[in-house]
Amino acid sequence: MQRTPLTSADNINKFSHERSPENVPTVCVRSINIHDDLPDCAGCGRCCHLVVELRPGDLVPEELVVTHDGARCMDQHSDGACVALHPVTRLCTIYETRPQTCRDFNRGESLCRQILGRPSLVG
């Protein structure tokens, strides 16, 4: 199995993805959980229902890309889920090359809490 190095973008909920022999993503979770009211990122997938516009330098497979009003975006299934979200594990199948927008999304921040229907923390 291949381990992915952790980066600072993995933030509080640190995890690395692995692949099973059937090429299904699995995850090893090491969580520093300061957001006890939120689920772990790994396996949640709620943020993967947002439209993700690709930025210059994003290297995702072209078969996962669509164009909306001239902007290149990750394609989505009819339920709004990103096509890179595994339907069973709820893990990103292109984690190593996921778009920068996805890398920048942080568990517990305002948008995360909004998606999950949780109140924002006042800092």
Automatic annotation (TrEMBL):
Concerning InterPro entries, the annotation shows: Puta_zinc/iron-chelating_dom
> Pfam families, per this entry?
CxxCxxCC
Protein name per its UniProtKB record: Zinc/iron-chelating domain-containing protein
Organism source for this protein? Nibricoccus aquaticus
Its taxonomic placement starts with: Bacteria, Pseudomonadati, Verrucomicrobiota, Opitutia, Opitutales
